[in-house]
TrEMBL record:
Highest taxon listed in the record's lineage: Bacteria
Pfam family name, one: YegS_C
SUPFAM superfamilies per UniProt: NAD kinase/diacylglycerol kinase-like (SSF111331)
Coiled coil regions, renumbered to chain: none
Keywords, alphabetical: ATP-binding, Kinase, Lipid biosynthesis, Lipid metabolism, Magnesium, Metal-binding, Nucleotide-binding, Phospholipid biosynthesis, Phospholipid metabolism, Transferase
Protein name, as recorded: Lipid kinase, YegS/Rv2252/BmrU family
GO molecular function, one term: ATP binding
Domain DAGKc: residue ranges: 1-127
Length: 289
């Protein structure tokens, strides 16, 4: 196989640059056939992935869930296999497909070349691999963009507490499985993988190859209850709360007369969405894991 590595040098608070250089040295010593390119701006990985998919058998994202999302959107139409060296703050997709967080172990998995077909999703025109967050979760992502000194799920936890002080839910109309639900939902998580935000198990029973999303619908509740459930999300036991609904579906439509926020794979999609269609694409991605 010939590999095309797309490195995000700012992922993992700058670890991407260091690990990218280390990776190039290791691959050269092993006489691996590869090309390595570096992202320079948001969205750049999509362009690079489109180019790499035309001439390489495997395109590899070296970064976090955001980098992986861009690479996915660049190669999904080509059917080229994807690899991942996780370097980001959350790495939830790596967790979902059992790719080790350790650099050496992740590289070993990649070079063994075992491929697996997994589901992906599409939110309006944007493909995603791990999940979509609607409402509070999207505003948390927005807040996290200003956090510079923390790492991992500490970023998410800090951003949750900051966002809680100002977030106001809006009425949302949900259509799925032949039913319609209307409520001021606090947040909605659409999970292809089991976790978001670096280990928050919002959809703990999700399977990445069952042709279904897991939905977590959280009704609006007092701040004390939100904080109590936040602790439970670490273990996935929040779903025992009667104000938390869990469902499975292959399509979800969300509509509102008021703008609502959306994140896709932990990257801010928009804070002014009024209609969102989310559909599953069964076995739409071949991943080396």
């Amino acid at each position: 196989m010939n590999y095309y590595f797309i490195v995000n040098p700012v992922s993992g608070r700058g670890r991407g640059k260091v690990l990218g250089q280390r990776l190039a040295e290791r691959l050269s010593r092993l006489s691996i056939n590869f090309e390595m390119v570096w992202t320079e701006r948001p969205g750049h990985a999509i362009e690079l992935a489109e180019r790499g998919a035309r001439s390489h058998s495997v395109v590899v994202a070296v970064g976090g869930d955001g980098t992986m999302n861009e690479v996915l959107n660049g190669v999904v139409e080509s059917g080229t296999a994807l690899g991942l060296i996780p370097v980001g703050s959350g790495n939830d997709f790596a967790r979902a497909v059992n790719i080790p967080f350790d650099f050496d172990q992740a590289l070993e998995v990649l070079l063994k070349g075992r491929k697996r077909k997994v589901d992906i999703g599409k939110a309006n025109e944007r493909y995603f691999h791990n999940g979509v967050g609607i409402g509070f979760d999207a505003w948390v992502v927005h807040t996290s963009l200003g956090v510079k000194r923390l790492r991992g799920n500490a970023i998410y936890l800090y951003s949750v507490l900051r966002t809680l002080m100002k977030y106001k839910p809006v009425p949302l109309e949900l259509s799925f499985n032949g039913s319609v639900k209307i409520d001021d939902y606090f947040m909605i998580s659409v999970g292809n993988g089991v976790s978001m935000g670096g280990g928050f198990y919002l959809t703990p029973d999700a399977e990445i190859d069952d042709s279904l999303f897991d939905l977590c619908l959280i009704q609006n509740m007092p701040t004390v209850s939100i904080l109590r459930n936040l602790i439970k999300v670490y273990s996935g036991t929040h779903k025992e709360d009667p104000r938390v609904e869990m469902h499975r579906t292959d399509h979800l439509r969300v509509e509102s007369r008021q703008p609502f926020g959306v994140h896709v794979d932990g990257e801010l999609f928009s804070l002014s969405v009024q209609k969102l269609d989310i559909e599953i694409i069964p076995r739409g991605l071949e991943i080396i894991c």
